[in-house]
Amino acid sequence: MAVSSHGSEDHTVRSFDGELAHLADMIARMGGLAEAQLAAVLRAVSGREAELAARVVGADPEIDRLEQEIYAWTVRLLALRQPLAQDLRTIVSALKVSGELERIADYAANIAKRTIVLIGLPTVEATAGIPRLGRVVQEMIHDVLDAYVQGDVDKALAVRQRDGEVDAMYTSLVRELIATMIDDPRTITACTHLMFMAKNIERIGDHATNIAEMLYYLVRGTTLKDARPKDDRTTAPDPDGEA
Amino acid sequence: MAVSSHGSEDHTVRSFDGELAHLADMIARMGGLAEAQLAAVLRAVSGREAELAARVVGADPEIDRLEQEIYAWTVRLLALRQPLAQDLRTIVSALKVSGELERIADYAANIAKRTIVLIGLPTVEATAGIPRLGRVVQEMIHDVLDAYVQGDVDKALAVRQRDGEVDAMYTSLVRELIATMIDDPRTITACTHLMFMAKNIERIGDHATNIAEMLYYLVRGTTLKDARPKDDRTTAPDPDGEA
User: Fold this and answer.
1) What Å distances lie between residue A73 and A22, A26, A60, B61, CA to CA?
2) Is B61 in contact with B135 (CB distance < 8 Å)?
3) Rounded CA Rg of chain A
4) B181 interfaces chain A, CB cutoff of 8 Å
5) Is the ipTM of this complex over 0.85?
6) Separation of alpha carbons B218 and B214, rounded Å
7) Nearest C-alpha neighbor of A166 from the set A212, A115, A230
8) Shortest CA distance to A184 belongs to which of B179, B178, B185, B177?
9) For residues B74 and B68, what is the distance between their CA atoms, to the nearest angstrom?
């Protein structure tokens, strides 16, 4: 995707191609920000850096603003250009992808808030599982954004395949956290936060998968018929691990 | 909103008004299903009814299917009718609302899966807090769907105001669950599930609020400038309660 040199002001004189490129730029910028937010919060967890976590929280409104901007831009394109076929699908999918990115960033901010609380509590060994899980998901986001920009369906499908790996790591982390709490009830508050943080990261992986599936639809024109690697991934790991 | 008597097959001969009515019908049907899913799972939690919970899980794909149908229908409307102004906003917001409803239903299904696990574990007294919290959120969904169908912005704003009540109840329930776990570590597994269930319900309230805000935008043409009752509601309650 070519980087646009246009500002947001001159859009009345743009060509439709220029307008689509601007849309792609905004998605790329939003994706880059979401990815950076996750990277920063993982560093904050590892290094117990409250200030860095606070910066992640503070940067979230910028991403929300960008989502609003993309929304307004797509509605404008739909109204003025009345696009058809592939262009129409490109615009509508940009709207959906921006929604996914907003949620990814929202989860990163939520993890950051919990990190700040966590730093005030005694260290729990299982904390190390968070950046470990996070790094896999971070790669998924990076790769799915690359795939989206390049229109590379195979790369997107590879991202989707990794969701199973994330679920396995998440399940094992939840088990470890439950064992830690039972072992030492003084860790319950910290472990509760860690459990939600792990869940948030697992959800980020789901949103990366959603983007991969959207790209598939965008390029191939049909939805992925085969179900996801596992369909009930939001709960199944816990019951299995804990029941 | 008038109930359409058209099937999905005869859309080539429909008027644009008829097509918009069909879109509204699909949204209303999806909203009704999401609301019914939450109601059913709350009954399953109260009555420890595993079969009912399993039915909620089983009904989730129907809602996903409806979201796909709405997506395809909106793309079709955008392509064939090239709508402008209010019609365009109506169609794009239907797309967004269907996304919110899909997530609401997804959370209900997640609660249902955890309910099935919970029924196999010793009863925890704090469980009663789940249907209590759920009922407030159920009313929010009901009211925001009414507001959406009627285009009633005031009603939507009233729904948005209730989100603070949900957060307060959620915070208090999380505190109770943490105290229960510390008190009796044998309840840790059950309380962990209850905590995620409470979080899911609180998130459903957020999605009801999103629909309210979308309706505001749809009717008034501007976004709500004033921030939500609280901006950081996804984490703040826990740190406050637990730190």
Assistant:
1) 9, 10, 20, 32
2) no
3) 19
4) yes
5) no
6) 6
7) A230
8) B185
9) 10
Largest interatomic CA distance in chain B: 66
Closest CA to A238 of A175, A179, A185, A188: A175
- CA-based nearest residue in chain B for residue A118: B243
Which of A88, A110, A243 lies at the smallest CB-CB distance from B79?
A88
| Residue closest to B99 by CA, chosen among B50, B6, B30 | B30
User: A58 — contact with chain B (CB < 8 Å)?
Assistant: no
* Alpha-carbon gap, residue A87 to A23, rounded angstroms: 12
- Radius of gyration in angstroms for the set of CA atoms belonging to chain B, rounded to a whole number: 19
Task: Give, in order, the Cα–Cα distances in Å from B37 to each of A191, A232, B90, B238.
Answer: 31, 16, 26, 27
pLDDT at residue number B85: 81
Structure confidence at residue A231 as a pLDDT band (50, 70, 90) = very low
Write the residue in B88, B189, B195 that is nearest to A78 by C-beta.
Answer: B88
Check: CB of residue A88 under 8 Å from CB of residue B79: yes
In chain A, the N- to C-terminal Cα span, in Å, equals 48
Contact between B187 and A181 (Cβ < 8 Å)? no
> Rounded to whole angstroms, how far apart are CA atoms A150 and A236?
34
pLDDT at B13: 55
Alpha carbon of residue B82 to chain centroid: 30
User: Is the CA virtual torsion A188, A191, A197, A200 positive or negative?
Assistant: negative
Half-sphere exposure of A123 (CA within 13 A, CB side): 7
Contact B69, B8 (CB under 8 A): yes
Q: Do B235 and A114 make contact, defined as CB atoms within 8 angstroms? A: yes
Backbone angles phi, psi at A143, to 5 degrees: -70, -40
Looking at residues B89-115, what average pLDDT do you find? 95
Residue-wise pLDDT for B48-99, tens only, equals: 999 999 999 999 999 999 999 999 999 889 988 888 888 898 999 999 999 9
Residue type, A34: A
Determine the Cα–Cα distance for residues B36 and B42; give it in Å rounded to an integer: 10
> Model pTM?
0.84
Interface membership of A81 toward B (CB under 8 Å):
no
pLDDT tens per residue, range B25-49: 999 999 999 999 999 999 999 999 9
Higher local confidence (pLDDT), B99 or B227: B99
